[in-house]
Every structure is written in C-alpha cells, then in structure tokens.
User: What shape does this take?
Amino acid sequence: MSKKKKSAPKIASRRGVESFDAAQLWLSERGIEDIECIVPDLAGVARGKMMPTEKFFSGPVMTMPASIFAQTISGDYPPDDERFQHNTTDGDLFFRADYSTLTAVPWESDPTAQLIHDAYTREGIPVETAPRNVLKRVLQLYEDEGWAPLVAPEMEFYLVRPNTDPDYPLEPPTGRSGRPEVGRQSYSISALNEFDDLIDDIYDLSEAQGLEIDTLIHEEGAAQMEINLRHGHPLELADQVFLFKRTIREAALRHDMYATFMAKPMSNQPGSSMHIHQSVMDADKGTNIFSRDDGEPTSEFLSFIAGHQAYLPAVTCILAPYVNSYRRFTRGTTAPVNVHWGYDNRTVGLRVPNSKPGARRLENRVPSSDANPYLAIAASLACGYLGIKQRLTPDEPRSGNFSEDMHALPRGLLEAVALFGECEELIDVFGEKFVATYRAIKQEEFETFMKVISPWEREYLLLNV
Assistant: This one.
C-alpha cells in the first residue's frame, strides 16, 4: 500500500564527496554556480549563507554570530538567568563544511549546491549547542562502548491549502479530482493518487539529492502523508530528515500547497509523528546486540527499553518541542500517551516490531514531526544508552489497547522543560550549556505563546465569565 519509485544505486553517487578537492571536481562537473552553506539551528531551521562557488573555495572559513543557537522559533532571544547567559559580544562562530553532505538544490533555477556545516569556536572546539554536535556527542558515548546504533525515522506531514492568515484554520488541499478530502483514508492508494504530480516531484527532487525514500504512504488524516527512510547511521539519517523537510515543502509550493510538519495542524485530524526505529550493533562483530545467538532478546535490549521508560518524560521537551506538540497526545488515538512498551502494539509509546533476531529494534513513537531530527535522535539514543549503562529493567510488556492510559509523559511544555532541566543524568549526557540554553529558549517560546489570545478563550470566556 505504498508508492515506491527509483532504485537506490542510481542515486547514491549524487550526494556527498570525501574531500575539499573532490568537492571542487564535483561542483565543476555539474557547472554549479552557487553554494548554500547551511547549518541546522535548534528548531531545525536551515541557517547560513549563499555564496558563489569561486568565493567558497577562495575565501576564509564561514562565520556567523553565536546567537543563531540561542534563537526561538519566533526569532526572539531568551533573557539571561542564573544558568543561561548570552555571549556578551555575540562574537562569531566558525563553520566547517561536511563534504559528505554535498548535494544539489534541484528546485533552484540556477545550478546550485547545498552543503551542511558544523559549528566550532575560534579555538576549534565543537559548539555544545549546535544540534549536529549534540548528536555527535551522544554517538561518541556509543562508540566508546564499541557500539554502533542504527536508526530509521518515519516522518508524517500534512498537505494543506495555502494559508496566509494565521487566524483562519488550515484546510485540506484540492486533489486532481477537484475535491478536498473530508474523511480519513489510511493507506488508501486512490487518496495517494490524488497528489500524483506532487509525489512524482518529491521523488524526483529527492533522487537529484541522493535522498533514499523507502516508502511513501497516505496516513490516517486528510491529505496526511508518511515517508519512511531506510535504516542507517544516525547522523546521516538526521541529515536526510533535515533535507527531506526542505524538499517536501518546496515540492508542495510547486503545486500551490503548503506541506506542514506541525505536530497538530488541524483540531479535527490526527497529529503527525516522527517515529524512530532504533537498533544497536556491535561495531567489531557487526551483530545486533539486542539479540542472543539463540535469537532471544538480550539483557541489553530490555535495558534499552527500560532506559526509554525512565528518561522519556525528561526528554519529551525535545521530542515534543512546542506548545502545539502536546495537542497530539490525545487519548483514544494512535498517538502515544504513555511510556508503556509492547510487542507490535501501536497503542503504547514504545513498540517492538515483529522482526527477525538480526533486525530486532525498538520503535519510539513519542517524537512528533516538528522535532529537530538531530536532537530527537540524540535524545532517544541517550535514553537507551542510560538504560543499558544503568542495567535498568523494564516493566511487563503490554498487550491490548492502552491508548486511554495516560501515564508518565508530561502534559505541557513547561512541565516537560522542568523535567529536562532538573535531570542530572541527562545534563551529564548533553552538557549543562546545551540543557540551560534549550530550557531558556523553550521558556521564552512559551511566554511568546501566552501573549496570543486563542479562539477557545473568546468562545467560552467572552460572555460567560
């Protein structure tokens, strides 16, 4: 029940080179005139500079102000407090290209490339608050143990009619039949075919960038889609999610639609998630540490689950980063409302899919589609890592329907941020500077939200209180 095109070998060479010299050759062969030098910020927004190819290779290293990693989604900055302080001079950070991310920008009219950069201080120290560095920090913990995690994200998003007035609710777009969807069409091929031209553009733009789509399906909501990515190295998959979001938005604009990754864009429709499938390999043997030789689960697998149960509440502010994200956690839906676990059970937050022993994995169903992929993957892997290191034990797996059992997960952003900021184990993993900065940003975003009066307040309070 999925729409699937193109084969991976054809697109593998379209993305990434090994060195500065190889990048010069790659760009020259393709007649690339401009390069987008980009950096994902804490919200997952692409920041950076556009520069001519000649300047990129002849000029100094790219710099940007340190404040790009202290900015809220609305463009504001949190005030200083006892744990968070701005860079007093807002001095420059230095950015180095990761040439393995070099690829085309196929929606640009002129030949253009894009290249993801990493952030460093003047002294060459990785910036603690840069999302790619946060993920690398967690991956180093695994590497130190001789482990190599693998992940496979699943991204849900909605297609909606263009909406230029935020006071009006979003609506499904018109498909090729000339009619918008009104009901729910889970896994419907005909509903998917309503957007054939757009989907073809998504595949074509993805292929041009070397991005590998495993499957694309129609999800439960009206004009809600899901893209599944092939499993791989966590940093590479986070890069792909980051680039896919840009790609899908651009493809939708070509067809006079918006693509939105809001967690809950419409009140009468399901929310959108970013489920993360996770397994851990022995780096030397290449075997899954979650399975014993006889095929049964290992103690490490059970502790990995238990780590999620113990620490997911404290990282929920990363997995559900905005006020809107918590509207997705609704009883009686497929969105998780607890940290229970079970075998092939989609009514709990932690699902163990049916698989062969070599592919044994845990699906974290808590993250929403608005989460920064670098931070969400880092947070989820951090939970599992702590579980293994502390030899935690999970409770019993749940069978049956637990979609009504709200348990452990925080219900709002401020509660979630408080749990994160007070968890010593996570402060050790992520570093005090990142935790303090992230906490300050989220608190400031909440204050911005509180300045807006909602329709609910006008509906029920205007004449009744």
The mean pLDDT is 93.
